[in-house]
Each structure stands twice: as structure tokens, then as C-alpha cells.
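Person: At home tonight, work slowly through the protein below, taking as long as you need, and write a paragraph about the fold.
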Amino acid sequence: MGAPAHGERIERLTLSGLQDLGKVRDVARVLLPGCAEDDVIDSVLVADELCTLACEYGNLPAGVCLIRSFDRPSLRVAVSAPHLSLPCSPSASRTSRSVLESCATDWGIGNEGERMTLWAHVRVRLAETEDAFPVPRAPVG
């Protein structure tokens, strides 16, 4: 694992196919110790969705960068691949968009030359103590 720099911990992975999704999920979890379980789940879902899109619609291998910010508690995920395009099917794009809009604070698409980057930012909280009441999540939809 990478060393913290400027209040951040950065992990870079290479995504060669769907068989690498487990490793991405594991790294996302490892970067979020002591965080609220629902935020960890949201982070893993977002990382998984972005990587799945790269596997299905990009030329692999893809680069995956996970950045855990401690100053402003969050996880940023960026997946970059050559000639990456988004799904044309309304149902596939609607599913991806739903995951990103439900779980990520912000997300987007950028490109540099022939490489396209899908990125998302997930805000995380520290886990509540046993004595505290959980904060209700806003309903989706």
C-alpha cells in the first residue's frame, strides 16, 4: 500500500479484466478503516461500477487510482482506459447512472488524448460509537 502524502493515501492498480474487480474492492475496503459501514459499501459499489464500465466498454488494461483523503474524509476513484466509451443501451447507462448518483457525492468523465477517465468522489464518515443513534440516510429517488 502507498504511503500517506498530504493527508492522502493513494493506491494504483491495473485492471486487466473482470477477474481484477475483487482486488479493487479489497483495496477500497482497506483504505477505509473505521469508516461507517454504509459509506464503505457505497465506496465499493462506485469503484466496482466504474471498473466494470471500463472492462465492458474500454480497451484494457485500464489504470485504477483510489485516493483516500483524510483532511476531507472521502474516497476518490478514477478509472482510465484508451478508447473508453459509455454504454449506448438506455438500461445499462441508467443502471450505472443510478449507482453513481445514489452513492457518489460527485462524478464525471474526462479525456486526455485517446484515454478517457471515469471518476467519482464518495464522502465517508467515521463509524458511530455503539452509544450513538445512527443518522438516517436520505431516501433515494
In short: The first strand starts at residue 8 and ends at 15. The mean pLDDT is 86. Strands lie at 8-15, 62-69, 74-82, 106-112, 115-123.
